[in-house]
Specification:
The structure is a single chain. The chain is an alpha+beta fold. Strands 1-2-4 form a 3-stranded antiparallel sheet, with no helix packed on it. A hairpin with a 2-residue loop joins strand 1 and strand 2. The termini are far apart.
Length: 154
């Protein structure tokens, strides 16, 4: 009888959590009820971090033109690359590889060795975010013949 009671108690305790990442995220956001926009962003990131630790998602590499789009933006001396997320997942990793625009982009890039240009940030579904800013006071980038290949994943 003691074993049966312990087993039932163990079952009840283990079944009190969330069933999915989405449920966890929704309830954590709802429970936070922030009063300001800044507090809402902090609450959202905390909820995302907590729920991701409970429900890790498998990595998925996004397809450019389908899951995301990259826009090149020049604002004076600063060049930015903005990523627009069309997928239903959150973008957490954006890596770049420079190559000569007059040649085909390489296909054998070891993306594990490339730096995440977006470390610590994320772009939710349907949103956009600036990923990379480069200072180019002489405005040589456009005429340099250099292009960037992007690797985007969740």
């Amino acid at each position: 009888m003691k074993k049966l009671t312990s087993l039932i108690l163990l079952f009840l305790i283990s079944s009190c959590g969330y069933d999915s990442y989405e449920e966890c995220f929704y309830k954590e956001i709802k429970d936070g009820s922030p009063k300001t926009d800044k507090a809402a962003i902090i609450n959202e990131r905390a909820a995302d971090s907590f729920c991701r630790s409970k429900f890790p998602k498998p990595e998925r590499v996004f397809a450019e033109g389908v899951d995301f789009e990259v826009n090149f933006i020049r604002d004076g001396d600063i060049i930015s690359w903005e990523v627009i997320n069309y997928s239903d997942l959150t973008i957490r990793e954006v890596k770049t590889f420079p190559y000569n625009c007059n040649e085909k982009p390489p296909t054998d890039i070891n993306w594990n060795e490339r730096r995440n240009e977006f470390a610590g940030g994320y772009i939710q579904s349907g949103r956009r975010g600036k990923v990379l800013n480069v200072n180019d006071p002489e405005q040589k980038f456009e005429t340099s013949g250099r292009c960037l290949k992007f690797y985007v994943s969740n």
